[in-house]
Every structure is written in structure tokens, then in C-alpha cells.
Specification:
The protein is α/β, with parallel strands linked by helices and 184 residues long. The chain has one domain (4-183): Rossmann fold, CATH 3.40.50.10420. The chain contains 4 helices and 12 strands; from the N terminus they run αααββββββββαββββ. It has helices at residues 4-17, 20-35, 38-41, 135-140, and strands at 45-47, 68-75, 78-83, 90-92, 98-100, 114-118, 121-123, 128-129, 150-153, 159-160, 174-176, 181-183. The strands form 3 sheets. Strands 3-2-1-6-9-11-12 form a 7-stranded mixed sheet. The chain starts with a helix and ends with a strand.
Length: 184
């Protein structure tokens, strides 16, 4: 089995090799599964992410005003969540990732109904491979976040039987690919 660094590199290369048209279609299919899911339709406040590089792009969802959308800001080793709606300005964060402005209202864990988590890969048990910064693992290990439903967002080719895991890795409850939304 690959180690995490090798696996991440290999999967990111595969993802980067997808054409823009393929990525757009796969992203649209993921959004369609999410839109049709009870997890989304029952939610009011949803934490998401702005697509970075070749990640699945969920931006078509963000125009649905039935939801209050929150996006992360990374400062040091912590992530805070802020309200964002179409038309609000953004900044580029420390990793080159789009973030809401620092003065955007903060969203507290008790306000959140669903978390859409970006993944390099996921496995059938719900474990994810991210970029290696540990932001989501640190957040999801805190008591106040543990009862909030999570959906890992990943392209099907990176939905794997098993990933190498560490003691601090936290599994996600659901995984969504362009083919399906499943409970892990």
C-alpha cells in the first residue's frame, strides 16, 4: 500500500489530468446528488469550500438562498467559519485558497447542520486523505463538531477501498462522488 504522501501525489496528478469539461460534468453530477439528498434539503446552515485547483466545484449550489453558506478561513493552525453569499468579496488565504473576508460574520458549531468536506481521496469506511495540513481532522475531533453530519466530496476514481490512516484521522459519515452519495 502507498503511504499518504505518495498516494496524495498520485491522486492529485490523476485529478489534474481530467479535462476542464470532465471536471465540470463530474462536479455537476456531485451537485445533483447533493441537491437531491435529505441531508442537504433538511439543512439550513451548510459549511462548504471554494474549489481549489482541481477539486470538485460545488459553486453552483451557493446561489441557493434557502441555505446559509459558511466557508473556512485558515489562520495559523486553526480554521474559522464565516458567512458568505454570492456577491460578497473574498480574499486569498495563506495557501492560495479563496476565503471570506475576515470581517464576515463567524458561524459557530451549534449553528451548523451539515459540513461538505473537500477530499483528495476517501475510503469506504469514511476516512479521508486531505492535503496534509490536518485542519479538518483537528476540527472534527473537537466535541462541538462531532455530532454534525459530514459529507466527503471526492471524484469516483479517488473513492478507494482503504486508505492508510493515523490515530488522529476522523472518518466522515457520508461520501459523495459523481456516481452516488453513500453512508460510510
Amino acid at each position: 500500500m502507498y503511504d499518504k504522501v505518495q498516494l496524495r501525489s498520485c491522486l492529485l496528478q490523476t485529478r489534474a489530468a481530467l479535462s476542464l469539461i470532465e471536471r465540470r460534468q463530474k462536479s455537476d453530477d456531485i451537485c445533483s446528488h447533493l441537491t437531491n439528498s435529505q441531508l442537504l434539503t433538511n439543512a439550513k446552515t451548510i459549511l462548504a469550500y471554494f474549489s481549489f485547483r482541481t477539486e470538485p466545484d460545488l459553486s453552483s449550489l451557493f446561489y441557493d438562498s434557502n441555505y446559509r453558506w459558511g466557508f473556512p478561513r485558515c489562520v495559523g493552525k486553526t480554521m474559522s467559519w464565516h458567512v458568505w453569499k454570492p456577491g460578497d468579496s473574498t480574499n486569498t488565504g495563506a495557501y492560495g485558497i479563496t476565503e471570506p473576508n475576515s470581517d464576515a460574520p463567524i458561524i459557530e458549531p451549534n449553528e451548523v447542520d451539515l459540513i461538505l468536506v473537500p477530499c483528495v481521496a476517501c475510503d469506504y469506511r469514511g476516512y479521508r486523505l486531505g492535503y496534509g495540513g490536518g485542519y479538518y481532522d483537528r476540527m472534527l475531533s473537537k466535541t462541538e463538531w462531532q455530532s454534525i453530519p459530514t459529507i466527503g466530496i471526492v471524484f469516483e476514481f479517488a473513492y478507494l477501498l482503504q486508505l492508510p490512516i493515523e490515530s488522529w484521522d476522523k472518518p466522515l459519515q457520508n461520501i459523495c462522488t459523481e456516481y452516488k452519495l453513500v453512508r460510510s
